[in-house]
């Protein structure tokens, strides 16, 4: 049962638990920010409020460099606030890449790739390590983590054809613990917030701990239904 649990942490936790990562040094709106742009103290709460209304999203995760104990190398899929999800992931186990498919529906997570067939894992069992429904939970999910962040607005960039504010921020470890079990310290990175709609479409953060690598998460297809087919087991 250990491999499925590792998978759940790596994909569903890193996938949108990572959405809570951003970083500077927690100094609020430092002088290094662009004074001609909205302050991070305005942008981050606006993004938090917007993300609390999101019912579903597609995600695309990539990593670079040494990510330490974090086994995920890439993942792509979609998840909604009921815990329904589907996608694919590449993990590294004992130096070897493992390709996985996953489906979550009605209290179960199904994983294919560990043994050559689908495995059915109760969500209640997985939730002891991570609850995927927390990702979009207004009280303890992405919005809650964003609302506790402090940062600096660095500039504007075009992402997927739309303008975004680029904010370096520090996310509070206590807030992150509600989304990512076991996190005890602040996490640092950068978040891209839509100028027109306050949606978070990209996050990049340095992996906490011994790893020196980074994780980048892109979001799209907000509020589109996540339709899955439950595998036969």
UniProtKB/TrEMBL annotation:
<protein>
    <recommendedName>
        <fullName>Lipoprotein LprG</fullName>
    </recommendedName>
</protein>
<keyword id="KW-0732">Signal</keyword>
<dbReference type="InterPro" id="IPR029046">
    <property type="entry name" value="LolA/LolB/LppX"/>
</dbReference>
<comment type="similarity">
    <text>Belongs to the LppX/LprAFG lipoprotein family.</text>
</comment>
<feature type="signal peptide">
    <location>
        <begin position="1"/>
        <end position="23"/>
    </location>
</feature>
<dbReference type="InterPro" id="IPR009830">
    <property type="entry name" value="LppX/LprAFG"/>
</dbReference>
<keyword id="KW-0472">Membrane</keyword>
<keyword id="KW-1003">Cell membrane</keyword>
<dbReference type="Pfam" id="PF07161">
    <property type="entry name" value="LppX_LprAFG"/>
</dbReference>
């Amino acid at each position: 049962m250990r491999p499925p649990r590792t998978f759940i942490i790596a994909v569903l936790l890193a996938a949108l638990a990572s959405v809570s990562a951003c970083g500077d040094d927690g100094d609020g709106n430092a002088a290094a920010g662009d004074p001609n742009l909205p302050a991070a103290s305005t942008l981050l709460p606006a993004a938090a409020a917007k993300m609390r209304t999101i019912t579903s999203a597609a995600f695309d995760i990539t990593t670079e460099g040494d990510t330490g104990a974090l086994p995920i190398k890439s993942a792509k899929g979609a998840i909604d606030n009921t815990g329904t999800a589907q996608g694919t992931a590449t993990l590294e186990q004992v130096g070897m890449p493992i390709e996985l498919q996953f489906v979550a529906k009605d209290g179960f997570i199904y994983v294919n790739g560990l043994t050559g067939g689908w495995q059915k894992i109760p969500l209640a069992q997985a939730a002891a390590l991570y609850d995927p429904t927390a990702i979009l939970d207004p009280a303890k999910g992405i919005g809650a983590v964003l609302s506790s962040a402090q940062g600096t607005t660095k500039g504007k960039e075009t992402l997927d054809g739309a303008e975004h504010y680029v904010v370096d921020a520090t996310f509070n470890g206590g807030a992150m613990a509600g989304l990512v079990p076991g996190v005890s310290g602040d996490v640092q990175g950068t978040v891209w917030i839509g100028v027109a709609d306050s949606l978070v479409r990209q996050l990049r953060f340095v992996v906490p701990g011994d790893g020196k690598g980074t994780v980048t998460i892109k979001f799209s297809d907000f509020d589109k239904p996540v339709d899955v087919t439950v595998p036969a087991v």
